[in-house]
Design a protein that fits this description.
single chain; mainly beta; Immunoglobulin-like; 3 domains; five-stranded mixed beta sheet
């Protein structure tokens, strides 16, 4: 027999065997591993595949990319402490067989039982496996979201979308549950985590899928950390986190927030300054009357408690007023403290109770470039219903029948200097007149709140702060008092003196002026013109447009008149 007679058969057999091996080796599945175990001893772990180190010091709240893993044969996935030297140090083993061509998300979660830390709930450490996972959206243009409940101390929850869908996205999701993919248009969403009844919002988050450029992507969103860290070794706090197909650090979904400005306009003497608490935590210490905060971020989508306490308070237990409310995500609010606390020994002529008045749809800047937007609020407890009339530019009623505690929607005004008259409800009798120097104060593009503040008659209100109009800027700080007492067109300045025209474009006439001294100052108190005059006219063409005070010294007396230069 020829020694090579069987060689082709041997080659064929060898090729068949090799082909079988190649076929076996070619059977793979796609796998992403996500570390979501909040146990402190597992802050990072080592992961072994079939006894070989796959991931070294794999950190909490990180994910691998999707990788190829052997399929069609049993495999061992072991998790070991970050200090491990081999698979022999394994604390958890998963023996499984992956299906060839399938795609999996595997999440590490639970409590290892190896830590000295006490946890309020201790489901065993495990690797939870979701088959039929996706690396991209099933439909072009969408974002597909797989939801997983991995917070050990959180109860069964519903996940509700409140901005776009206004619908329950996941119902009765228990710890370690996956919920199948939500196939969503790539948009920005607001996600509320609710209790199992679906009525109480536990937490609210923004899911900015469009802003993050996640169109065409598939991702996993995980409930992670502890709802009550204080009962779980002060471990990582609860939140929603997104794992992208490319892996890396999980992306924290931001808490839903609203924008909020608080203005202190309570003229009660016992509330000359107060402490303000948010959800039991001190937010503002010794917050003074006629001051405002800047606009700040506040929790939205969940019930919050705003408490006001005396300036001597030591905790929220000293609260004298509580407002429990839920702010709308993305909304902007102005909140004004006003009224009478009832805790002072001072007698007040009118006693509306202390309250926080809330205006939604507030603004931090003008809606139209170049304007100044003015929100008006009546916060003077003893002042009647009033009209606000503008008498120099608009010559019109700006706010009609404004009652105590009322807001009037924004006036969108060209940035100019105005004269504001507070009139009685009939609109005919002027109670007080003020300058509103929006242009002089450089408030172009700004939005402000103008408040009626203090007491119309301090003598019957403990000689408290007198009535005035005050402006709160978006940047906060002390309220700005609007100057009062404008003398208008052809009004008598005193004795036999009068000035006209007022407003004036260039020449100011002063009847009755003989050997007098005229000093003109701007609203900052700077002298801009000084004239020793024996005539009756003064050239003011060199003055900029705006409000000025004219002081006339004659015969040992001084007369002050407000002037508008047009």
């Amino acid at each position: 027999m020829n020694m090579f007679e069987n060689y082709p058969k041997k080659i064929f057999l060898a090729l068949c065997l090799m082909g079988g091996i190649l076929v076996t080796q070619a059977q793979t599945a796609r796998v992403q591993v996500i570390h979501n175990c909040a146990d402190d001893i597992a802050d990072s772990v080592d992961v072994y595949l079939n006894g070989n180190l796959l991931l070294d010091n794999f950190a909490f709240r990180t994910a691998t990319s999707f990788i190829d893993a052997p399929a069609g044969v049993p495999i061992d996935i072991d998790v070991a402490p970050k200090t491990s030297t081999s698979v022999a140090n394994s604390i958890y083993n998963l023996n499984t067989t992956l299906v060839s061509g399938e795609t999996y998300v595997i999440v590490a979660a639970g409590i290892t039982g190896l830590s000295s830390t006490t946890y309020s709930n201790t489901p065993a450490f495990e690797l939870d496996v979701f088959p039929m996972a996706r690396e991209q959206a099933a439909t072009a243009g969408n974002t597909d979201v797989l939801v997983y409940h991995g917070a050990t101390d959180a109860p069964t929850v519903d996940v509700y979308e409140s901005r776009v869908l206004n619908a329950t996205a996941s119902d009765d999701l228990m710890y370690s549950d996956f919920d199948g993919y939500l196939e969503l248009p790539a948009n920005d969403y607001t996600v509320e985590v609710r209790d199992a009844s679906g009525t109480t919002v536990v937490a609210s988050y923004e899911a900015p899928l469009q802003a993050l450029g996640l169109q065409d992507s598939a991702l996993t969103v995980l409930a992670s950390g502890f709802l009550d860290p204080s009962a779980n070794g002060n471990g990582p706090a609860f939140g929603l986190y997104a794992a992208l197909p490319a892996g890396g650090n999980l992306i924290a979904l931001p808490n839903s927030t609203a924008r909020l400005q608080v203005i202190h306009n309570c003229a009660d003497d016992i509330a000359d300054s107060v402490d303000v608490y948010l959800n039991g935590n001190l937010l503002l210490d010794n917050f003074a009357f006629r001051t405002a905060t800047p606009f700040i971020d506040a929790p939205a989508g969940v019930t919050i408690d705003i408490d006001v306490a005396p300036k001597t308070s030591t905790s929220v237990a000293n609260s004298i007023y509580n407002l429990s409310t839920a702010l709308t995500s993305g909304e902007t609010y102005v909140v004004v403290a006003a009224g009478i606390t009832g805790l002072s020994s001072t007698t007040y002529s009118v006693n509306p109770p202390f309250e926080l008045d809330v205006f939604p749809m507030a603004r931090e800047q003008a809606a139209t470039a170049g304007n100044t937007d003015v929100l008006v609020y009546h916060g003077a407890t003893d002042a009647p219903t009033v009209d606000i009339y503008e008498s120099s530019v608009l010559m019109a009623t700006a706010s009609d029948d404004l009652m105590y505690s009322d807001f009037d929607g924004y006036l969108e005004l060209p940035n100019n200097d105005y004269i504001v008259e507070v009139r009685d409800a009939s609109g005919t009798s002027v109670v007080a007149s003020y300058l509103a120097p929006l242009q002089t104060l450089a408030l172009e593009d700004s939005a402000i709140t103008v408040l009626a503040s203090g007491f119309l008659d301090p003598s019957v209100n403990g000689n408290g702060p007198a009535f005035g109009l005050f402006a709160a800027l978006a940047t906060g700080g002390n309220l700005i008092a609007l100057p009062e007492g404008f003398v208008g067109l052809n009004e008598t300045a005193g004795m036999d003196l009068s000035i006209y025209p007022n407003p004036s474009k260039g020449t100011l006439f002063i009847n009755g002026l003989h050997n007098g001294r005229v000093i003109i100052t701007n609203l900052s108190g700077k002298v801009v013109k000084e004239v020793n005059n024996t005539g009756d006219r003064i050239d003011i063409r060199d003055l900029s447009k705006g409000f000025y005070q004219v002081s006339i010294e004659q015969e040992g007396q001084v007369f002050n008149v407000k002037l508008i230069k047009e």
